Amino acid sequence: MLHNKSFVKKTRAGKVMKQVREHYLRDDIYCGAPFCTVCDTSGARLNASPSTTILVVDTNVVLNQIDLLENQAFDNIVVLSIVLEEVKNKNMAVYNRIRALCSNSTKKFYVFSNEYHRDTYVKEMSGETKNDRNDRAIRVATQWYQNHLGGAVKVLLITNDRENKRKASEEGIFAETVESYVKSLDQPDLLDLLVRPASEDVNMEEVEDLRPSKRKVIYSEHKPMSEITSGLHRGIYHQGKLRVNRYNPFEAYVGRESIGDEIVIYGRSNMNRAFDGDVVAVELLPQDQWQEVSSLSIAGEEDENEDEDVHLAPNSADVAPRTIPQQGSSGQVNAVPNRPSGRIVGIIKRNWHSYCGSLEPMPMPAGSGGIAHALFVSKDRRIPKLRIQTRQLENLLDKRIIVAVDSWDRQSRYPSGHYVRTIGEIGDRDTESEVVLIENDINTRPFSSQVLACLPPLPWLVSSEDLSNPIRQDLRHLLVFSVDPPGCKDIDDALHCHALPNGNFEVGVHIADVTNFVHPGTPLDDEASQRGTSVYLVERRIDMLPKPLTEDICSLRSDVERLAFSVIWEMTPEADIISTRYTKSVIKSSAALSYVEAQARMDDSRLRDPITTDLRNMNSLAKKMRLRRIERGALTLASAEVKFQIDTETHDPLDIGMYQIREANQMVEEFMLAANVSVAEQILKSFSLCSLLRRHPTPTREMLEPLLQTAAAVGLHLDVSSSKALADSLDHAVGDDPYFNKLIRILATRCMSQAVYFCSGDLSPPEYHHYGLAAPLYTHFTSPIRRYADVIVHRLLAASLGISKLPSVFQDRLQLSSIADNLNYRHRNGQYAGRASVELHTLIYFRKRPTDTEARIVKIRSNGFFVFVPKYGIEGPIYLTKSGKGNGEWYVDEQQQKIKRMDGSLSYSVLQTVQIHMEVVEPQPNRPKLQLTLI
Amino acid sequence: MEYVSPEGLRLDGRRPMEMRQIRAEIGAVSKADGSAIFEMGNTKVIAAVYGPREVQNRSQISNHALVRCEYSMANFSTGDRMRKSKGDRRSTEISLVIRQTMEAAILTHLLPRSQIDIYVQVLQADGGTRSACINAATLALADAGIPMRDLVTSCSAGYLNSTSLLDLNYVEDSAGGPDVTLGILPKLDKVTLLQMDSKLPIDILETVMQLAIEGCKAIANYIREILLENTKQLEYRRGV
């Protein structure tokens, strides 16, 4: 083993410092070819036959052509460690993908640590740039492979760098560009995956001045990084993540830390080629250019202007369409807009990935060698259209496809991208469901064999070891039962309640003991932690844990013995908690009831059996607990959840209706809330810095503005000073019709943001507050089968009771925070996916059933209004004027939230009931959408 | 950050169970009674031992030898040249640690009414200075001919990216992970020093400690070799 020192100069905090690092060069790094006679072949991964070409790829090939590398046709590739390092520095997402490829056992990718190999390490020469040195290292390594494996094996360097290729050929290395290599493979489909080099290089500004530009420059230039940095420093520019409005792609927001407010960016040219999620630098526009936009969408912006779609009624501020709070409503129509707007001057970090969508319908081009340029429309409306090149246009036109973005230069209106793969036919329910899942980054792959290997052998039964375990209490004698939605297979909670001799009640909540089977650090645990949550679509469920655990081993089914984690309270008949006890247990559920059954039992006064008595006792306790919670200021919010009846054969929706909430639902919910609160207190007491809790931030006044405005328009005063005040004023909001209160509650709900998971060490105790439940502490404990957060909480609880050790993850706060972030992300995506699935099924349902129904106006805009259809839980626009035309005919009264015809013959005001017609139309072939019209 | 690549290589090209290159030299300070230089990779320390000699402060006389130790870092030992004050908390602590470790090995009862001074200075720091100082001090004490129970050798081990790592360098050390410094009497199989930064589950501590013990033993073998060679040279010079 040789030993060598490399000298690196590094600046840190402006100081130039010389840093010395040791760099050991080794002779025990092997080539990875199984047929090699010199090397140790135990870790070899390359193709066993010497006749296949070994490919060496350079950094830019990995960075740009990762889609191609993921294709089956690419195999037997040597990835050099220098390439990995460069990729890691440039793009973490690509790095993770190439790493995944290297560890994928079906692909023959071998990582060769050239930087640590005695013969392939190269020292930087004087005057040589870092890039040149790395290119040389790649060539040296390629050469080494060639010499090492002898002439029998062909080693091919794939590089798109002309200079590198020339030098390689000079040194006697076979080198080819990606394009010529793909062509030599003779698979035309692969060419679609190829990323074409951008027509102009990054430094095209210089070229620009020299030649008269033939093409129109559409976007202004991005400022160079140095200027951006100094601009940010001086406070001229603001940095932030761009968030494009989900419902209006021409409107985006940048939260800026420097002012604490957000900047609005209107229109594509101000957005200057930025995508949703990019980290950008923004310059504020002069105040007289700040604009006020209140029409349904901005008119006159190119030909892309699309109408708003009908969508599901939002249930929180996070999914609701962003509305601009209309200020200055004190009678002045032309109040100075005080919402800062800006334009993007540079992009600091791109958030490009691949998108789902379809091609814009177009005629087949004649000739041109089969290559067609097509426009791709993403399903996600926040993404602009993409220009792609394809040789298989006729195949792709009626398909949902995935496309990745490559570049966007100033001269082109649309960014360019390349085709990645086809999902299926447009409009097909399975395809569309898959699109929903891909769009929301939900992993639907079957569980890997490593994960399945972690499962206990089936059929699983409670063993005598479990019963004799001192930490586990035998509660099989208790009358335990579960209440869940009908058809529920993953039953993770059960209850019991029995009267004690002293008049009090013993109430127990028993939660499936998932952590008994999912141990930290196992592949099963890692997978569950990645998935974060089970996702419920209308017609299918994507599990977080493998099916045997979800539906059998953990599920607290009736008449079988199951392991549980129990929270047991002693409660007075007034529902005051006297004592709380937590224990692992063995239970035997005696009944798995549905909400309907439970409700029916409670309502049927003739029934006197023990379960029914327990149910009634619990219900009366729950009612008291609920009342107390509401007195404390918990909000009773409402959402317009709908339920489908699905045809068992065709999986098409048969009927659709509002989800009915019964007392039994509320009863179970109440005990689950109580268990969560108790557990939160317990874990925080033991682990004040590393507990996983859930908080619901207090909505700001600005967020509640739309609600207040609507309420004011109908003459209702809402007090939003605290959750208690809001809850009270919501209670008093009774109109002349029975649905009024519910409607106000629905509107209130959508102003709130969603609750989030967090690590208790990251925030101070007052911030732990859960606004909606009016609880100072809250966590998730009751659904470990379908939420990973609960698994973590189970571990924390077990550790706080001394039952097991705290896994080492909890000592790393950063890691815990990142787990919490991932859970929030997965949770939100899961919900988006669920909603998108409902929207999809709504569309399928109405395809054959044009319907007339009643709707409520919820929002007034300058050329129409939004209506909410209570029966189907959907919301959508109704246009009074054709978009694009003059709005002269109608007049909007902001303060009264009314829209009137100029001659005063007709007027609509907010919350008014209207009759509408719902119908599925196809403005373009294969693009069905739901249209609402007034009758 | 990735401290161990999936290929099983650390940032400097070592494998997890490998130590840095070590080198030792006896007799670096001719004026001292015993002295040594010890290098672990880029960490380089010098140790000088004076004694056994008369106790300077008469009030401290006892029937055991008095061991004193002073640890310091040269101003040029790290990249930024900063004037290091002598009595800062860190060096006071390390001085104490080294003194206690060495005291456990020296047969102090054989040297009553005398004092032994150990001076260690870090010439170049790259992680693991504590261990290097102890190793250098052992060599210097042996060079000075001070009676000892056994050699004391020291080595550190850490736990990063769910892997136990032997002999952390500066980059790995500043990762903030657990860092176990262990000093043992290799022949007697006794631990004289055990320190740890950060937290580590108890079962993992055992494996990390085991690794550190292996490291200490390897160093002990090397030190013995150096001593043997040194003795041979002395023998040769005396013409025996």
From TrEMBL, chain A:
GO cellular component: cytoplasmic exosome (RNase complex); nuclear exosome (RNase complex)
All residue ranges annotated as the PIN domain in the record: 53-166
Domain RNB stretches: 472-803
Keywords assigned by UniProt, alphabetized: Exonuclease, Exosome, Hydrolase, Magnesium, Nuclease, Nucleus, RNA-binding, rRNA processing
Gene Ontology annotations of biological process type: nuclear mRNA surveillance of mRNA 3'-end processing; rRNA catabolic process; rRNA processing
Known cofactor(s): Mg(2+)
Gene Ontology terms, MF aspect: 3'-5'-RNA exonuclease activity; endonuclease activity; RNA binding
SUPFAM superfamilies xrefs: Nucleic acid-binding proteins, PIN domain-like
PROSITE patterns cross-referenced by the UniProt entry: RIBONUCLEASE_II (PS01175)
Pfam families in the cross-refs: OB_Dis3, PIN_4, RNB, Rrp44_CSD1, Rrp44_S1
Family (UniProt): Belongs to the RNR ribonuclease family.
Listed name of the protein: Uncharacterized protein
Organism for this UniProt entry: Phaseolus vulgaris (Kidney bean)
Automatic annotation (TrEMBL), chain B:
Gene3D superfamilies documented for this protein: GHMP Kinase, N-terminal domain (3.30.230.70)
Keywords: Cytoplasm, Exosome
Gene Ontology cellular-component annotations: cytoplasmic exosome (RNase complex); nuclear exosome (RNase complex); nucleolus
Localization of this protein: Cytoplasm; Nucleus, Nucleolus
Domain Exoribonuclease phosphorolytic positions: 18-147, 150-215
Classification via InterPro entries: ExoRNase_PH_dom1, ExoRNase_PH_dom2, ExoRNase_PH_dom2_sf, PNPase/RNase_PH_dom_sf, Ribosomal_Su5_D2-typ_SF, RNase_PH
Taxonomic superkingdom: Eukaryota
Chief place of localization: cytoplasm
Signal peptide: none
Entry's Gene Ontology BP terms: nuclear mRNA surveillance; poly(A)-dependent snoRNA 3'-end processing; rRNA catabolic process; U4 snRNA 3'-end processing
One GO molecular-function entry: RNA binding
Keyword Cytoplasm part of the UniProt annotation: yes
Family to which the UniProt record says this protein belongs: Belongs to the RNase PH family.
Protein name: Uncharacterized protein
Organism of this sequence: Phaseolus vulgaris
Lineage: Eukaryota, Viridiplantae, Streptophyta, Embryophyta, Tracheophyta
